[in-house]
Design a protein that fits this description.
homodimer; 161 residues; mainly alpha; disordered N terminus; DNA-binding
Chain lengths: 161, 161
DNA sequence: TATTGTTATACTCTATAACTATA
DNA sequence: TATAGTTATAGAGTATAACAATA
């Protein structure tokens, strides 16, 4: 239990020496994980009303960014298995936020598109969710926010692969 | 849909002007959220076998750090509601990883402690989980890892409050 | 009466395995 | 046979509302 007491900020700067990397990097992993878990728990639970869930917003955002996608492509981009995406899409379709129609030349594929209403709901939901996180972020220093901005591509890399 | 096409990296540096903050900060929120959600989804699903879940590890880590806690205190530290914690604790107790005994002078309280076996399992699980995330982190540049290290306290602040 | 914790219930999120339809 | 998607099923993770025990 004594090793758990070591503070994150005690970690020395990375010297670029390869032999030292594993130790530092694995300690970074151990520090990063619980923080991410707790923060995302907060973000996920933050919903104004029994409206659209975060997973649904995430899928709709990807559709807004990339345009219509097959169900499988969408699942891959979201990093979930096809059956999980099927369930998300069924709920979204029932609410009239997306449509599924079969691909013209390969009828196995289900091409998913945002509806007009889906686009509107996405915008409104994002605004509400952003408000909450924006207030949190406003409590940071402007330097911290700058660094966070820089970090986003890194976090994105970590989440992909 | 046109506004969604704006790239994250287009965001200009924060000039320190207060009137401009809201716009930038809310865009930061919108960029940060999906990245965090996807990354944590990956982390949560990464489990070697039908062993201990991430939520369980998180609760056990808090017990290891702070020593025995009442069920309510533990729930508050983890940022979940008491009934959620009750469920987590019931599973952990059934597996012999924690004990619940009533507080000597206030018998409403249930004091939760890690067992010896719980401490061992926690250490082993952390090692396995760290391995996975460490490999991801190893794919980053050492500059990216430094930035990440610097920002852990910031992310921690965001997750608390 | 107020507080602590649990039980009952429900919903989201995700997975694997087995199946259907199409290529 | 191989691929795309769905259905069936199960389990983790979380919440609110209602209850019991204790203070």
């Amino acid at each position: 239990m004594s090793s758990a007491a070591r503070s994150v900020t005690d970690v020395p700067d990375d010297t670029g020496r390869t032999g030292e990397h594993d130790l530092h990097t694995s300690e970074l992993a151990g520090s990063l994980r619980p923080v991410l878990v707790r923060l995302t728990r907060q973000i996920r639970m933050q919903r104004s009303d029994p409206s659209v869930s975060l997973t649904q917003i995430s899928a709709m955002s990807t559709l807004a960014r990339h345009g219509p996608l097959s169900a499988g492509d969408l699942a891959a981009r979201e990093g979930v298995r096809p059956p999980s995406m099927t369930k998300v899409l069924a709920a979204l379709e029932e609410d009239g936020l997306v449509t599924r129609r079969s691909h013209p030349s390969d009828r196995r594929q289900a091409i998913v598109s945002l509806t007009t209403r889906g686009t509107e709901v996405l915008r409104a939901e994002r605004r509400m969710r952003d408000e909450w996180l924006t207030q949190r972020l406003a409590g940071l220093s402007s330097q911290e926010r700058s660094l966070l901005r820089e970090l986003i591509p890194t976090l994105d890399t970590l989440s992909q692969d």
